[in-house]
Amino acid sequence: MTQRLLLVTFADEHGLLRAVRHLRAEGRPILDVRAPYPVHGLPEAQGLASSRLPWVTLWGGLAGLTVGLLLQAWTSAVDWPLNVGGKPLFSWPAFVPVAFELVVLFAGLATVAAFLLVDRRRAPAPPSLDGLRATDDRFLLALGAEDATYDAANLERSMRDRFGALGAEEVFVEDAS
Amino acid sequence: MTDHAHEPPWIRPGTTLRQVTDDVCGRLEGRPGRLWWGGFLLSLGMLGIGLVSIGYLFLTGIGVWGLNRTVGWAFDITNFVFWVGIGHAGTLISAILLLFRQRWRTSINRSAEAMTIIAVMCAGIFPLIHMGRPWFAYWVFPYPNTRGSLWVNFRSPLLWDVFAIGTYFTISAVFWFVGMIPDLATLRDRAKTGVRKAVYRALALGWTGSTRSWHRHETVCLLLAGLATPLVLSVHSVVSFDFATSVLPGWHATIFPPYFVAGAVFSGFGMVLTLMLVARKVMALEAYITKRHVDVMCKVLLAMGCIVALAYATELYMAWYSGNPYEQFAFRNRLFGPMGWAYGVMVLCNVLVPQALWSRRLRGNLLVVFGISLLVNVGMWFERFVIIAGSLMRDFLPSSWADYAPTLAEIGTLIGSFGLFFTLFLLFCRFVPAIAMSEVKATIAHEAHEAAPADGSPPPNAADRPGARAAEDALAGGAR
To answer: Residue A18: its pLDDT value, please?
Structure first.
């Protein structure tokens, strides 16, 4: 399916931020915003929910702790109990460093894996927008151009005059989904 | 801290976003200069010396080193602790300074992190090759095996090291790569030729710069920084346990974990300064690694140097206060024994020389700073050598006392590790954006934002007026 959208380009974050706030107050659907660096305040302006990745970190860390303690307890006290210097077989204080390292290892790898998996589900705007300098020095705003109230000329003028957009153009893209 | 407005900005004002991209990517797209090739060939030569030394060791046996029954650890473990320590400054800059929101780190964090990863690789070589039968190195991992299963001893600090260093390397590498994804996408979007484009496309993992992605990316970086901060403290603490849990006077000290961590950050900052001063000249990055960056790093170096000095003093005081004759002998021997000269070098380089950095004028003289940073590296290497070999040479029984001198094979291996370090670092400078472009761009935006009220121009939310917008455009790259 081909999707029509209006692509507005900005040269700096201020106009973009105000445009996003304005459009959201108007209720116009914002498909995607792309920027060369994380713009402060933009996630809030777009109304994005905060990330649930910290939970992955927590569960990853707990998994690491469990694996670390069970591995050490089982190998040292159950599978082949060895008397080392008369210490108790389950000498848990000696198991703290390895358990800690495994907490960090599991939590870190789980977080990054979750990030990459979640982020692979493409951003809403399709990949053909790559190469429009959004990874360089331009800020792109992709608006849905298919609802009844959409008026390209009006919207473009408002973006240019009120928010200092460099330009706006309608593009047709193959739907990524 | 209150006078932000009067301090010069971290990035030269008027630097546009485009310029950052061009400055950083341009260096990767052209051909390397003569200076780079010269350095690379020299490093490769040093690496070759190391490979020959290690080959000789593997073919002949551990006897090619100067070790004996009393001094079982000397050059090898000194180099291991030295290189692990070097890495710590990179994590401090990338993780701890991120949590403290120190914006000056953005220019140097990418290369400091690369330094960490490469230094840990260099460190990893030494425990491996000193095993005697390095082809059985995988025995350090707890895996079900046909020997029983005979498990590793989880009560041994040497095994803790395996986990600490392994985790440290993995998390540092992952953190470094995740931080680099947006910059790799910039390179992908600029690349013209097929191979280059294909490689950077694969590495960039489909990064688009969407707000959602940035939002998650920032969250992940903060989480990794939060994990890396206790991790880096644990790594050198665990390294210090290798010594502190033994009964040897001079090793058996409860102060060792913080003492080693402070020393590690100190030596790491010495190396960061050395590398940054070279990199800004060779790669012409003066606009990003400014004199103010050097000034701040010098202050960190001085602060860490003072902590290290305090640790030395505490050690001496505790030796006296303990009333333990073995402890007292160990330290008298350290100061005045056969390795006394090395202790002198250590105090000179680590305690006395950095005091010059109290002077603002000397901190501004890059040649002086470069010299001091080199001396700190030397001093910190000697600190580990004094602790490790010096303590072993004179233990409880005079009948087992022995001396130690390194052989050519050991010196060759040390040279080789420096060769590996600089070879990999120069390759990093060639193929990876050495400056975190997206972070520098965010810093530019932040500084433009902070500078606005001081200039008397309206705050961003009142920026509709044409004049203000023109100024903003000029700042943020709209003029191009």
So the answer is: 86
Identify whether B149 is preceded by a cis peptide bond (ω within 30 of 0): yes
B427-437 tens-digit pLDDT: 998 888 888 88
Residue B173, pLDDT above cutoff 90: yes
Q: Catalogue all structural domains in chain B, each as residue range(s) with its CATH number.
A: 17-442 (1.20.1630.10)
Residues in chain B closer than 8 A to A143 (CB atoms) = none
Residues of A in contact with B16 (CB under 8 A): 137
CA B151 to chain A, closest CA, distance in angstroms equals 6
Please give the residue of chain B at the shortest CA–CA distance from A48: B212
Provide the number of structural domains found in chain A: 2
B401-413 as b/e: b if 16+ CB within 10 A: eeebebeebbebb
Residue B200, min C-alpha distance to chain A (Å): 13
Nearest to A137 among B21, B151, B207 (CB): B21
Chain B residues in contact with A107 (beta carbon < 8 A): 223, 227
**Whole-structure pTM over 0.95, yes or no?**
no
**3-state SS class at B34:** helix
Q: Which residues in chain A touch residue B208, judged by CB atoms under 8 angstroms apart?
A: 32, 34, 122-123, 125, 127, 129-130, 134
The CA distance from B207 to the nearest CA of chain A, in Å, is: 8
Q: Mark which of A98, A120, A142 sits at the end of a domain.
A: A120
Domain that holds residue A10: 2-49+126-174
Residues A113 and A76 reside in one and the same domain:
yes
d(CA B128, CA A125): 49
For chain B, the average pLDDT equals 86
> Is B244 in the A-facing interface, judged by CB distances under 8 Å?
no
Closest-CA residue of B relative to A98 is B160
Under DSSP, is residue A34 helix (H, G, I), strand (E, B) or coil? strand
pLDDT at A122 over 80: no
B274-277 contacts at long range (C-beta below 8 A, 24 or more positions apart): B274/B370, B274/B373, B274/B374, B274/B377, B275/B111, B275/B115, B275/B425, B276/B108, B276/B111, B277/B366, B277/B369, B277/B370, B277/B373
Q: Is B18 on the interface with A (CB under 8 A)?
A: yes
Q: How confident is the model at residue A128 (pLDDT cuts 50, 70, 90)?
A: low
State ipTM.
Answer: 0.89
- Which pLDDT band, with edges at 50, 70 and 90, does B373 fall under? very high
Please, are residues B357 and B363 in contact by the beta-carbon 8 Å criterion? Answer: yes
CB contact under 8 A, B209 and A35: yes
B window 377-406, beta carbon within 8 A of A: none
Is B36 exposed, middle or buried, given 0-12, 13-18 or 19+ CB atoms closer than 10 A?
A: middle
**Residue A163: is its pLDDT beyond 80?**
no
pLDDT exceeds 80 at position B474:
no
Q: CA-CA distance, B356 to B369, in Å (whole number)?
A: 9
| φ and ψ of A3, to 5 deg | -115, 140
What are the DSSP calls for B93-106, one per residue?
A: IIIIHHHTT-GGGG
